[in-house]
């Protein structure tokens, strides 16, 4: 299922996280054994893509990982290359495991840009989202992987605007994730590629500039201002980025924003402290949506 067409938050399914699977020596041995045994069935004639049934495409672990997933996780690059070459424009490339990760997600997570390039050229769909609502581009922005970011944005220009603006289940789009993690170069690239610099995240309406102030990052604040961020944009609590400097130690950020902020927007509005409004930045996804009820 392509989550790009459904931005409604979903309840998280309780599966082991990727890190837990990496840490299990027994699971790792089982996966490597499966990869070794099954790969013997793959024809070495890798220059001839096949749409016919291939037994190795059906092999799946208890975590929902295909042989291609395992090859990427265990950095068996040559094996991964051969499976990709045999599967050009085949649905096998877009199979999602129990965490709804595709091979492309895993290639970005493990920072293997050469595989990202091969997967995209072979027809892997960059619009697919995992069980946290993140596309591969979201993950690249979160990790600060400029190489993977560049490959995805260059390959997916037709759908790039929708991917960049798509919010994950925490309400953050690609620009928000790059800002939260302080990757200034990615922020610059996203804005230059057409990302809305004043887009508001869905939890409390913060823009990238609000987030940069929240995280007390003067370099990012300055760059966002140079790129044209709106200093007078209000979050859902009625606060400008300048309001978020109250009670904070960084005078540089306060000075950067003071003269640019409209006079009538410099004083705090008559409402609760901005601290309570900002708390959800640090909440987990479970906590963000613990008030959502499903069914009757």
UniProtKB/TrEMBL annotation:
SMART domains: ANK (SM00248)
Per-repeat ranges for ANK: 99-131, 170-202, 204-236
InterPro entries assigned: Ankyrin_rpt, Ankyrin_rpt-contain_sf, NF-kappa-B_inhibitor
UniProt entry keywords in alphabetical sequence: ANK repeat, Repeat
Database matches in Gene3D superfamilies: Ankyrin repeat-containing domain (1.25.40.20)
GO biological process: cellular response to tumor necrosis factor; toll-like receptor 4 signaling pathway
GO CC, any one term: cytosol
UniProt key word Mitochondrion: no
GO molecular function, one term: NF-kappaB binding
Lineage: superkingdom: Eukaryota
Family statement drawn from the similarity comment of this UniProt entry: Belongs to the NF-kappa-B inhibitor family.
Function in brief: Inhibits the activity of dimeric NF-kappa-B/REL complexes by trapping REL (RELA/p65 and NFKB1/p50) dimers in the cytoplasm by masking their nuclear localization signals. On cellular stimulation by immune and pro-inflammatory responses, becomes phosphorylated promoting ubiquitination and degradation, enabling the dimeric RELA to translocate to the nucleus and activate transcription.
Record-given protein name: NF-kappa-B inhibitor alpha
């Amino acid at each position: 299922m392509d989550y790009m067409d459904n931005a409604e938050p979903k309840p998280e399914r309780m599966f082991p996280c990727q890190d837990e699977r990496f840490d299990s020596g027994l699971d790792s041995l089982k996966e490597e054994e499966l990869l070794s045994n099954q790969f013997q069935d793959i024809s070495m004639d890798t220059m001839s893509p096949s749409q016919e049934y291939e037994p190795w495409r059906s092999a799946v672990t208890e975590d929902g990982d295909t042989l291609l997933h395992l090859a990427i996780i265990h950095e068996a690059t040559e094996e991964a290359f051969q499976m990709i070459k045999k599967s050009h424009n085949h649905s096998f490339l877009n199979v999602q495991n129990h965490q709804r990760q595709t091979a492309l997600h895993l290639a970005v997570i493990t920072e293997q840009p050469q595989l990202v390039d091969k997967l995209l050229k072979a027809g892997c769909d960059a619009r697919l989202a995992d069980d946290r609502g993140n596309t591969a581009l979201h993950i690249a922005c979160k990790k600060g992987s400029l190489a993977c970011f560049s490959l995805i944005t260059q390959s997916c220009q037709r759908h790039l605007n929708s991917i960049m603006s798509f919010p994950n289940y925490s309400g953050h789009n690609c620009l928000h994730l790059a800002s939260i993690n302080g990757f200034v170069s990615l922020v610059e690239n996203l804005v230059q590629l057409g990302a809305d610099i004043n887009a508001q995240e869905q939890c409390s309406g913060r823009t990238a500039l609000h987030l940069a102030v929240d995280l007390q990052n003067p370099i990012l604040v300055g760059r966002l201002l140079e790129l044209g961020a709106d200093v007078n944009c209000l979050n859902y609590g009625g606060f400008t980025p300048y309001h978020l400097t109250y009670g904070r130690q960084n005078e540089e950020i306060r000075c950067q924003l003071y003269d640019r902020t409209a006079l009538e927007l410099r004083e705090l509005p008559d409402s609760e402290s901005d601290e309570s409004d900002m708390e959800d930045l640090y909440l987990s996804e479970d906590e963000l949506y613990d008030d959502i009820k499903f069914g009757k």
